[in-house]
């Protein structure tokens, strides 16, 4: 069984630009989560999808972040416009059971 | 609000020695508890989890953890570490937020870097 995949593995953009991160969950997993780790800080929850519906987006930092999960399969996280403080590693996780979350390798975002 | 404290940022252990990584949590009820490991260039791998029942939990790679309600702790242990155990370890807590008992978003500690000396 393939694991959670994320694309790209690394993205470098300038402040003010737009970046879209993609996550492909494990097949059959209805639950999909986004997390972020800013350098030196702990991993923080951003939001949770159940199929295509946002179950909880309490961790989204502001309205520059937009997450979608069309058709309940893969998900995208768009940052527009990017700011310097958005730099960090963005993790995606999925699970069949909400109590089990399998993480992807992460996307390292650098905003210059 | 729930929180997780991993008091040790770095721990250095000799290969073959025993290991204990500390984790304390703050939560109003019995939470779901997890330990994840991240090796360089890899994603987070689930080592073990506790939901209920036996408070001593066995995981992968020879790790175990013990839930102690009275101390609000969930420390990770391994009797003999191998050089391949060098990684960053994260303790996490999930709340029983929904009627279905789902953990929803996890709250993580800041992580502990494990360094193995030959």
A few lines on this structure:
The complex is a heterodimer of chains A (about 110) and B (about 120). With about 110 residues, chain A is mainly β.
Radius of gyration of chain A: 13 Å
Q: What is the molecular shape of chain A?
A: globular
Dominant shape of chain B: globular
**C-alpha termini separation of chain B:** 41 Å
Mean pLDDT of chain B: 90
**What is the number of helices of chain B?**
0
Distance between the termini of chain A: 37 Å
Q: Mind describing the biggest β-sheet of chain B?
A: 6 strands, mixed
Number of extended strands of chain B: 12
Number of strands of chain A: 11
Q: Poorly predicted ranges of chain A (pLDDT <50, ≥5 residues)?
A: none
Tally the helices of chain A: what do you get?
0
Low-pLDDT segments of chain B: 98-103
CATH superfamily of chain A: Immunoglobulins
Provide the CATH architecture of chain A. Sandwich
The overall average pLDDT of chain A, rounded, is: 93
Proportion of residues in extended strands of chain A: over 45%
**CATH topology (level 3) name of chain B:** Immunoglobulin-like
When the domains of chain B are counted, the total is 1
State the CATH superfamily name of chain B.
Immunoglobulins
Key structural traits:
heterodimer, A: mainly beta, seven-stranded mixed beta sheet, 0% helix, 50% strand, B: Immunoglobulin-like, four-stranded antiparallel beta sheet
How does this model look, in words?
- The complex is a heterodimer of chains A (112) and B (118).
- Chain A has 112 residues and is mainly β.
- Chain A has a single domain, classed as Immunoglobulins (Immunoglobulin-like, Sandwich), CATH 2.60.40.
- Chain A has no helices and eleven strands.
- In chain A, strands 2, 4, 5, 6, 9, 10 and 11 form a seven-stranded mixed β-sheet that branches.
- Chain A is globular.
- Chain A starts with a strand and ends with a strand.
- The model of chain A has no long low-confidence stretch (mean pLDDT 93).
- Chain B is mainly β.
- Chain B has one domain (3-117): Immunoglobulins (Immunoglobulin-like), CATH 2.60.40.
- Helices cover 0% and strands 49% of the residues of chain B.
- Chain B is built from no helices and twelve strands.
- Chain B has strands at 3-5, 10-14, 19-21, 24-26, 32-38, 44-50, 56-58, 64-68, 73-78, 87-94, 107-108, 112-117.
- In chain B, strands 2, 5, 6, 10, 11 and 12 form a six-stranded mixed β-sheet that branches. In chain B, strands 3-9-8-7 form a four-stranded antiparallel β-sheet, with no helix packed on it. A two-stranded antiparallel sheet of chain B has the order 1-4.
- In chain B, a hairpin with a 5-residue loop joins β7 (56-58) and β8 (64-68).
- Chain B is globular and about 40 Å long.
- In chain B, 36% of the residues are buried.
- The chains are: A mainly beta (112), B mainly beta (118).
């Amino acid at each position: 069984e393939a694991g959670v995949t994320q694309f790209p593995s690394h993205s470098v953009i300038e402040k003010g630009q737009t970046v879209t991160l993609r996550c492909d969950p494990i097949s059959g997993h209805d639950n999909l989560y986004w997390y972020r780790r800013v350098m030196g800080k702990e991993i923080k929850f951003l939001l949770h999808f159940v199929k295509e519906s946002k179950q909880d987006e309490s961790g989204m930092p502001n309205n520059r972040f937009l997450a979608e999960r069309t058709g309940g399969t893969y998900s995208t996280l768009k940052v527009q416009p990017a700011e310097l403080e958005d730099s960090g590693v963005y993790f995606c996780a999925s699970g069949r059971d909400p109590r089990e979350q399998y993480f992807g390798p992460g996307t390292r975002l650098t905003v210059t | 609000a729930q929180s997780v404290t991993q008091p040790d940022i770095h721990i250095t252990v000799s290969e073959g020695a025993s290991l204990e990584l500390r984790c304390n949590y703050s939560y109003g009820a019995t939470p779901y508890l997890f330990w994840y490991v991240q090796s360089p260039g890899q994603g987070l791998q689930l080592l073990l989890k506790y939901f209920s029942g036996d408070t001593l939990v066995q995981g992968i790679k020879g790790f175990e953890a013990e839930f102690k309600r009275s101390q609000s702790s969930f420390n990770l242990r391994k009797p003999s570490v191998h050089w391949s155990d060098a990684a960053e370890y994260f303790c996490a807590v999930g709340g029983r937020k929904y009627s279905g008992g789902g953990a929803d978003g996890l709250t993580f500690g800041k992580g502990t870097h494990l360094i193995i000396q030959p």
